[in-house]
Write a structure and sequence with these properties.
Number of helices: 15
CATH topology of the domain at 83-256: Phosphatidylinositol Transfer Protein Sec14p
Helix content: 40-55%
Strand content: 5-15%
Structural class: alpha/beta
Strand order of the largest sheet: 1-2-3-4-5
Number of strands: 5
Distance between the termini: 45 Å
């Protein structure tokens, strides 16, 4: 893992004053429950995502690290050699695209490769997704914005039935409250006839800010108005190598940098024993978990 060049990022975003960032980093390193190894480059993502508001950046970082500590499903045991993640790598392709949209936005695409619902584990797939995203951001540095694309081709009701409501709540909480990105668009392409079932899982946990950038595309040409065809792999009519080929680039990076990803996990968690005041747990973030059931698919 090679952290994006700091000087280059400050040059591209001159509105970020380095002296302000140093104050933010000093605050981070003064928190006893944060990792002392948390870097300026990692902190920069939060300052940028929060539009250079120091107080908001502090709040989002605290929420991020606390969530990553207690969201066992998605952020704990980031060992790419684990059986669960090896299986997830065979199940889905998660591909950050090269280049950017005309507005400068960076794009990541996720799709099924193994269409068997019995091999689909939502938590493991989302853990892999977040690992790829984290690695990508670490090396890519701050950007004007990010676009998430989910391709539903091959998705069945069997896949949807394997997504728990609490898992969906936790992921959407993280995406909306804790992720250190400026999310510009959230696109579903190749939408399915039972899209209402998927939206029934998501709607209770989406704020209006997310619904306002959520797009459902039946027509790929409509999608190309947001992400140009020239950015897309061959399986979407673009010029780039197919997603199942491109995914190997990032999966191999995760394998090669297994140790660094485990260190990344540790840096992005809190030590509750050292937290000033009362330690937090999952119920402080998400409430009581026992009342959640899977979506009933009939």
């Amino acid at each position: 893992m090679k952290l994006a060049d700091l000087d280059e990022q400050y040059k591209r975003f001159p509105q970020i004053k380095r002296e302000e960032m140093r104050k933010f980093v000093d605050w981070i390193h003064a928190q006893p429950h944060f990792s002392p190894q948390f870097s300026e480059g990692e902190a920069l993502h939060f300052f940028h995502a929060c539009k250079y508001s120091m107080e908001m950046a502090k709040q989002v970082l605290e929420t991020n690290l606390t969530a990553r500590t207690h969201l066992d499903d998605f952020f704990v045991n980031l060992d790419i050699e684990s059986h669960q993640l090896k299986k997830a790598m065979k199940t889905v392709s998660i591909v950050p695209l090269p280049g950017a949209t005309p507005e400068g936005y960076r794009v990541i695409v996720g799709k099924l490769e193994d269409l068997s619902a019995s091999n689909f584990n939502y938590a493991d797939v989302m853990k892999l997704y977040c690992m790829v995203f984290d690695y990508w951001m670490y090396e890519d540095g701050i950007q004007p914005g990010h676009v998430i694309v989910i391709d539903l081709k091959g998705c069945s009701l069997g896949h949807v039935a394997r997504i728990g409501l609490l898992q969906m709540k936790k992921f959407l909480f993280y995406l909306q409250e804790a992720a250190a990105i400026r999310l510009i668009g959230f696109h579903f392409i190749n939408i399915v006839p039972f899209m209402d079932k998927i939206m029934a899982l998501m709607n209770p946990f989406m704020k209006k800010e997310l619904t306002s950038i959520l797009y459902l595309h039946n027509d790929i040409n409509e999608f190309f108005k947001f992400v140009p065809r020239e950015m897309m792999p061959k399986d979407y009519g673009g010029p780039l190598e197919e997603t199942k080929v491109a995914r190997e680039l990032y999966y191999n990076k995760l394998i090669d940098d297994r140790k660094q990803m485990l260190e990344f996990e540790t840096r992005h968690q809190v030590n509750e024993k050292l937290r000033p005041g009362k330690p937090k747990n999952a119920s402080d973030l998400f409430g009581i978990e026992g009342n959640f059931k899977k979506l009933d698919i009939d």
